[in-house]
Amino acid sequence: MEETVQVLEKVPIINFSHLHHDSVTKQIHEACRNFGFFHVMNHGISDSVIEEALNVNSNFFGLPMAMKEEFNSDDIQKPVRFSRLQIGCHENEMLSRDFLKLYAHPLHQFVNLWPSNPLNYREKMGIYATEVRKLGIELFGAIMESLNLSPTYLKQIFEQGMQVIGINSYPPCLGSSVKTGIAEHTDHSIITILLQSSPGLHIMDRSDGTWKSIRKIKGSLEVIVGDHLETISNGLYKSVLHRAIPSSNNCTRLTIANLHSLGMDDIVEPAAKLVDEEHPKGYRGSSLRDYLGHLSSKDATPFNHKIKI
Ligand code: OGA
Ligand code: NI
């Protein structure tokens, strides 16, 4: 029997145009602390930029498999990689999705490796990636401020950091025993900025330990606290367990996740200001490369457990 999942009613909605106002900083603090998640509105990325990003990806995933498989690889360190994944189980069913990963920063270093079919793919996704990156940098500063750190804490390193775009396509039906979706996980990033074409995202509600579905709010983007923000905050902001179980209607659900991290070999540590006798250092230093190494090792322990002291 399908489990019934309630809607999470009290999800914070952050008004980006009022970032750095005290009340919004407080709202970000509460959101990251209590949910590991928030919506962001008035983020400045235009509807047309968003629509075109979704469109070119929809066209890419609509290509014959042979053309997408050109980007297929077992090497998870590849800057561009396509795969049809079958990972994890949900109610004894396999969960599957089509997945395209793109490294996106610095853009000029990677954009020529991105798909060139459809023809406008690089242009439209390049614009979206650049705009989301600006948003990510602003949000990062506001989140640091919400931790009572300087809004410029790690700013320069974050600005030089990695941006990995994960594009997920969830077709309505892949076969009788296979459902589409993404199994529960936390993101390894500092923050992930998620764009959804339709609802389907669930997060674990810490207040009662049950799954809740997230409404799709028109014009909003979703912000997910990742493992490396948990590290920086010394455990004050926990990365949020989430999954996607799109409803089985006739539409393909498309999501674009922008994962923002420090550089590949930058070591992420708890902020010194958040470590004291009462709050001892709870996390080992780790880099994005450490995470990728962990992922290739097939060690089933989640990365965020590995880095806890
Ligand atoms: C992800 C992710 C959720 C979704 O790509 O890490 O959690 O709704 N995606 O596709
Ligand atoms: Ni995720």
UniProtKB/TrEMBL annotation:
Pfam families: 2OG-FeII_Oxy, DIOX_N. This is KAR-UP oxidoreductase 1. Residues 160-262 form the Fe2OG dioxygenase domain. GO terms for molecular function: 2-oxoglutarate-dependent dioxygenase activity; metal ion binding. GO terms for biological process: coumarin biosynthetic process; response to molecule of fungal origin. Belongs to the iron/ascorbate-dependent oxidoreductase family. Keywords: Iron, Metal-binding, Oxidoreductase. Signal peptide: none annotated. PANTHER family: OXOGLUTARATE/IRON-DEPENDENT DIOXYGENASE.
